[in-house]
Amino acid sequence: MEKLINDPTAYVDEMLDGMVAARPELRRLDGTEVVVRADGPADGQVAVVSGGGSGHEPSHAGYVGEGMLAGAAAGAVFTSPTADQLAAMIESADAGAGVLCVVKNYEGDVMNFDTGAEMAGMEGVDVAQVVVDDDVAVEDSLYTSGRRGVCGTVLVHKCAGAKAATGADLDEVTRVAEKAVENVGTMGVALTSCVTPEKGEPTFELGEDEIELGIGIHGEPGVERTDAMSADEVADTLLDEVLDDLGIESGEEVVTIVNGMGGTPLSELYIVQRRVAERLGEEGVDVHDAWVGDYMTSLDMEGCSVTVCRVDDELKELLAAPAETPALTVRE
Amino acid sequence: MEKLINDPTAYVDEMLDGMVAARPELRRLDGTEVVVRADGPADGQVAVVSGGGSGHEPSHAGYVGEGMLAGAAAGAVFTSPTADQLAAMIESADAGAGVLCVVKNYEGDVMNFDTGAEMAGMEGVDVAQVVVDDDVAVEDSLYTSGRRGVCGTVLVHKCAGAKAATGADLDEVTRVAEKAVENVGTMGVALTSCVTPEKGEPTFELGEDEIELGIGIHGEPGVERTDAMSADEVADTLLDEVLDDLGIESGEEVVTIVNGMGGTPLSELYIVQRRVAERLGEEGVDVHDAWVGDYMTSLDMEGCSVTVCRVDDELKELLAAPAETPALTVRE
């Protein structure tokens, strides 16, 4: 299976070098796989940071920049960053107002962020954490106790980063991050397996006419392997689960994401988006904004996820605040 | 081969519906596959429009919006839009200052844009055209006489759209579009074939360890089928051809695009970007800006293209001007 890589063991290093080569406003923290803002932490503001295994690009380094993250740590593919690197990121990002870590709920990430935060805390940094667990598909999975953290994490980055940019204190930034977490749900589907650089082969087998509902972003098992469905059936299935889980009712207002898993063309995502918008219209749910694209991927997996976030005036304002990062730009 | 589609014959229609559902600032021109700005043509400004076969998303409807295109017409997959639809688009987009059509050099597109422009001209619209032929790989190919128009087209959209937004007249907007065309070159590579919705199977066969250099964006033949290469070798090969063709020399300034073909994850594009930036640095070429992502795709094809555009102060200013479209946002 031919890929655009050199040495599989240099995959993360070269990818991060490519990103900072393209974006001079970002830089790598020396000797780490951490990407931070080249202009340093914004003076006196809370720094929002994140991280996780690689293979989910543009997550998370693609969200470093004005109005979103102050830093992102990349582990090896599908592997948590080390506690040392997380501690270095947290210490480097602190501008004197404390650091909020946005952590996807995977055991390795949670453990290493805990240790990294503790290490940074011993250096005098005020650290808070929020754990994102938006995947409604499964409770307790291969790498988690509780639910997995997936694409909804990007909305948490946006809300927390925008709040930090207002000069709010760590408690306030943490509060809006938690508010976003409480109101967001996601479910995904795989049409194909992903291929990891090291292995060079599909990580799991899926028949030509099979799909896997509730897939994780590392190819870990979902809730059901089923026959091929139309795009509308996929959209309905994912959306129903998410709406039901969040208890979204007619008259409520939401932001949606139709997210590609990395190998799915944008045209197909728009076909799914069409049905998501149609269904929400039928349900009387007001769509404040709809994002369509690759936000939280699984290498070259074909498939998508559907995210719904209930929004109030505060979250809407934070989502609409200016941002400038490699993967998301929002104008005033 | 499972895909996120419903009826293959509704592919384009549903995709465009999904796009306008996500972006209320866009709308479809009634009874057509044309996407235009919902707020209508900008009064007194030249309208820049484009179009072509579907399957290249986000091209072209993804570039409709403030600072770029006033309209984009989508044909069936890999098929030119009809002259009737192009005429309807041109007439609808005209705000009294004339319309510039940006056309990729494919025989069907050129012929239908010619006819559409003539039809609109008979209705009193002042129409100009520029034909983009940036693909340095082949002269005269399966669907073209002369070179093919590929990813460089997006830079032409940006420059022409930004110039139109300044209130410049049709001659001036056409001049900057032609300047961009003269200074841009692109070459691509396929690692896999694409799968068209109608056929549901690869359009050509490529061995597991083969790649095709100089591929067209419809899977039409390139210049050489060769054994697998590393990402760096791919980057070197594509970049050398483009730099040589443009005659770029040390000390010149360029904007680059590492463009994904639709099925390639962003991580791999960044690995290619790393080498492109490194090589240009070695050559003493100054990279003013570097775009990395899916701009001109070929359905779900895995692969990439490398675009280089020589820029002067005028093109730099136009590329940096504000824009707000589904696929590209530029802040002030």
Automatic annotation (TrEMBL), chains A, B:
GO terms, molecular function: glycerone kinase activity
Keyword Translocase recorded: no
Biological processes annotated in GO: glycerol catabolic process
DhaK domain sequence ranges: 7-328
Keywords assigned: Kinase, Pyruvate, Transferase
UniProt-listed NCBIfam families: dhaK1 (TIGR02363)
UniProt protein name: Phosphoenolpyruvate-dihydroxyacetone phosphotransferase, dihydroxyacetone binding subunit DhaK
Species the sequence originates in: Halarchaeum acidiphilum MH1-52-1
